[in-house]
Fold these 3 entries.
Entry 1:
Amino acid sequence: MILSYVVTAGAFAGIRFPLSHFIDMEENRLLLYGIVAAFSVIVYLFSWLTCPKMVSHKDM
């Protein structure tokens, strides 16, 4: 759980830092939140598709 907070903060900062060179983030917060939400959906879908395959190969 602690790791998820670090990863989430890192992803948010990792997206915000490069975009701040191209657009003004103070004026476009909604755009930033939309990009972060889209990134979150992509990562969730990736984990949803790959985790069952990884778990089914493990011996329980």
Entry 2:
Amino acid sequence: MGNKDFGGRITMRLSTGEAISLRGTLNMQTSGLSTEAVTNQDGSVDRTATVQPRRFEIAFADRGLDHDALMKSPRFNVTFDEEFTGVTHYFTDAFVTGDPQTNRMTGEVTGLTGVAEKYSRRDG
């Protein structure tokens, strides 16, 4: 049975030891497959699967992180710790994709997605 608790403080830490202060929603796509329904001419339905990377979408506070260095960095591991729920997420051999945008009115950086070779989770 799954946990019924969500939210609270979530810490993002890179394998370099650097912590990134998240802001707003953290979305994760943790499945290695995307499936789609395909309808045949006789009305029957088949399913096709496409292999995909595990991903996480982040928004964070602009605290001077060098965006060029982040985009060009070697692959790294990322850990997300959910303090309230005790759940920890591990993304292994990750890199960042997207186009970083900084909102100078709110100080929020958006437009980035982390892509990883592997994902695992430890429940608290």
Entry 3:
Amino acid sequence: MEDNTPSRDLVCVLFPGLVKNEEKAIQCLGGIKQISQVYSQPAKKRLGLSFQPDNPYVKKIYANCKKATGVVLKVKIKKTKVDNEVNREVVSTSVVGRVKKMYKFEAMCDFQYLPVHREGNGPLKCVLEQLLPSGLDDVSFVTGPAPMFIVPSNFTRSDKPTNYSYTDKRYISKEIKDTDLHCRVRAERGTPVVRFDFNLVDVLPTEPHEYYMNRKAAKVKIFPELENEYQTVKKMFDERPILSQNLIRYQTKFRISCLKIILPCLSLYMMSGPWRMLWVRYGYDPRKEPGARIYQTLDFRLRHEAGVHSMVTTKDQVTHYKRADRVRYRRWLDSEGLAIDAIEVNEGAVYFRPGMVPTQRQVFYMYCDVKLPEVEAIISQEPPAGYLCHPKRGWLPPNADQLCRDHIFKYVKETLLANHNTEFKLEQGSSDDGSNSEDDGDSFTDDRSEPSTSNTC
């Protein structure tokens, strides 16, 4: 039996218009180079289209890469004209290839601001040449008067049209809201805050707010597996009283949508201080436990030294793209109605040990997760008797964060340069990651009277 399956894979672009000139259509899409860049990175960049490529004030419309199933057919039609009537006859058909990816423009292109000007009652004239330099202009182009044309910061809040239901029932009755768990309504205002701005006066809560427990109970009825995930995270807090969301996601692979429900039921979020961006178990007060110093936050940023900075990508892999060109990670809903996360947490964003390289240029580590002998020696020092928790550095000695950053960067630099086979001359330069402490050494002193403007540990 003959296999007629097409072997050529094609990518389809649904152009929003009638194409009479293929070269102009490709120019509207940014040219062959721009199309090739989008095709090579479909998960990062979107395909933009401008109906006036030479006009930078035209708002582009964008298309995301979607999966498709189809074939491209080549059809030859013979036209014959008889008595002013055109008859069409199919001569032959052939399959060119199969389509697995498709770019479809679904956004609105109605919001356009073009540089036009009207003198008196005359017609509108385009003043684009008066705004953009041509390369042959003299100094008078900059010093002379220019048309008052200012492009608005936002063209529209949404690129897609939204439906509005005109009805008298603006709010859902309380009876329906209490009985229907699937009823989507606006979140109630006045939600109890689970965040804590670090200070040495306020008392930490020992139990979760009733609101979060009721919310978890309602979600468990819809998604029973959430209870098992809750017990897993609870067991992790029993083993370690302070955790980060990245550490939980790396070890359990749970979704962010589930952790947003679970974490407020078990812990308190620290907004600032030595344990900032971490979740502290209810009933545990790190301000009273010197042993909590191993869980403090270490803000590590890669330095611009010997070309090492360019060897590590940023957290957002597409920062060199314009924001409008980036692919927006959509929160697809699974069968249980919870969002599916698109990005996973790598080991380098949680742990550090010799031979590893951070996955991004700025990482928030916990001191106990940095497996270096030099760092372990620093955090093993017990604070002197009667020492109180410092609002910035916690239970660690002065300049401890700077020393730990120096040790981490030394290992990162050696690993990167060894893997890239470079011959740079390394210099032991100072850090540019935000620490300007005047204290030297690693002995404990009390400098609470000195003013401080940074929350970085």
